[in-house]
Amino acid sequence: AGILSKYEKKFGQIGVFFGLGVYLHSPFKKFIPDWTFVNNGSFFYNRIGIKYYVLKNIFTQISARSHMQGADNPEFGLVYQFK
Hints:
This protein has about 80 residues and is mostly beta strands. It contains no helices and 5 strands. A 5-stranded antiparallel sheet has the order 1-2-3-4-5, with no helix packed on it. It starts with a strand and ends with a strand.
């Protein structure tokens, strides 16, 4: 669970976004076998991605999340946005 603040720039049906977030509960603050913290126990993360708007309220997105060093995981989504 976390809070994300993002900025998006739309070019027709394509949107490009980036954001900065903070975890309310960090899933990364745990030890791994070499006695270091995964991602140094960071409570902050970055997200960058691209969206394609199928309809006004429906879009698909691909994004990458990182914790200050490198991309940790890709995210894929099909989203319905309430407005």
